[in-house]
Specification:
- By secondary structure, the chain is mainly beta.
- Helix content is 8%, strand content 32%.
- It has two domains: 26 residues, no CATH class; 78 residues, Sandwich (Immunoglobulin-like).
- It has one helix and seven strands; from the N terminus they run αβββββββ.
- The strands form two sheets. It has a four-stranded antiparallel sheet, with no helix packed on it. The protein has a three-stranded antiparallel sheet with strand order 3-4-5, with no helix packed on it.
- The chain is elongated, with a radius of gyration of 23 Å.
Length: 143
């Protein structure tokens, strides 16, 4: 019998490390994401509201945008890193993330936008999203 082996054009050898950073997102390697490449959220539900906690490390409060439309929640953030190069210096490697990121998800019940509240502390965005009061169904009498 013949043995089949899978060809990896970017094996994990010392010489290929030069190219790993370029192709890691395409390869989906674990742990290759930038800190803000995917906003991590925890959502809890009580009888009257949802609580959302989203990790946004290194983001300024003014650069966070939260939108609520019905039961759809959208969180967006923009991160700008100032480039401070002194004369005679050159960048050897840059790993700090700069750019924008967003995340949207839907909840089971519609949100009362007027009563929603947000707080940002220590890199964690906390949202309190009260559920809209469901209207009582009225049963019509058929004559």
């Amino acid at each position: 019998m013949s043995n089949l082996t899978r060809f990896d054009p970017f094996p994990l050898e010392p010489m290929s490390e030069l190219f790993q950073g370029l192709f890691r997102p395409a390869r989906g390697a674990p742990g290759s994401d930038t800190p803000l490449a995917d906003i991590k959220v925890d959502v809890t539900e009580s009888g009257t509201a949802y609580t959302v906690k989203a990790e946004l490390p290194g983001v300024e409060k003014n650069d966070i945008d939260v939108k609520i439309e019905g039961n759809l929640v959208s969180i967006g953030a923009k991160v700008e890193r100032k480039q401070e190069l002194k004369e005679g210096e050159r960048v050897v490697r840059r790993e700090r993330y700069s750019g924008s990121v967003s995340r949207s998800f839907s909840l089971a019940a519609e949100i009362d936008e007027a009563a929603a509240a947000a707080e940002y502390k220590d890199g964690v965005l906390s949202l309190t999203l009260p559920k809209k009061a469901t209207s009582q169904r009225k049963r019509l009498q058929i004559n």
